[in-house]
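Troubleshooting: if your tokenizer reports a length mismatch, compare your output against this known-good record of 303 residues.
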Amino acid sequence: MNVAAIDIGTNSMRLLVLSSDRVEVCRMTRVTGLGTGVDVTGRFDQGRVAATLCVMEEFADVLAATGVESTAVVATSATRDAIDGPSFVASVTSILGVEPRVISGIEEAGLAFTGATSGMGDGSTLVIDIGGGSTEFIVGSTSVEASVSVDIGSVRLTDRWLPERPSTSERIDAATEAVGAMFAGALRDIHLPPGSDGRAVGVAGTFTSLAAIAAGLGSYDRSVVDRMEVTVDDVTSIIERLTPMSLDETAAIPSLHPARAPVMLAGAVVASCALRAVGADRALVRESDLLDALAWSLLPTDR
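Known-good structure output:
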């Protein structure tokens, strides 16, 4: 039996197909920037919707070709916030034959934690999941003990503070101050657990891209990126590198998905602020996250 999970994110659309024994059959990511502009207008850009629905048609073909018997679909921050979210969900349902669940930030955090901590033992961990529209902070050991979802991510920060590229140090400073204030107000009860030695766990595209850039990879490689460490100093250096670059120059970075270029600078700012806000000096980057946990939830538990 094959199962599939689809994550309709604010920036990226992702599909994972697994066999019944957790062997990866197919993994795909398509960046459509679905949530671009939602923070400003409250509505989806119809061109972004059209591109996303084309991706859903592609995913539907993969589901059929791989013999998937059970599919779970979730939508996150942008679909939560957009006035026309319900009509978008209806369009996706008509294509996939499965209705996406528009999940809360807290449920998003729980899934991210399950994916990120897989294979890491039972020690207490702080996970940071930076999405396009929100950032989740989760603390736990074998299960979630505390979590906070903050409505800022790489797409939302781009819309608010960093819409133009190249950018300037003044804009970066203003964005950093704004994000830092948001995190400071939200994270009073979220701290690095004892024994963390200054290290958080980072998941999702911003952290994985930062790891690949910091390592100077000639092309993106999941197997290399998983469990890499990225320091606050690494992130600061990447922000300084990206700030004066045009979109084309950013997109030409070998290890970066070109479609992620418009939000990469903002994502790096969010990552820097997130790590500093919890007192971490580095992040252990994990490739497994919400998408993996969602797929695992469809598999038999008596294994």
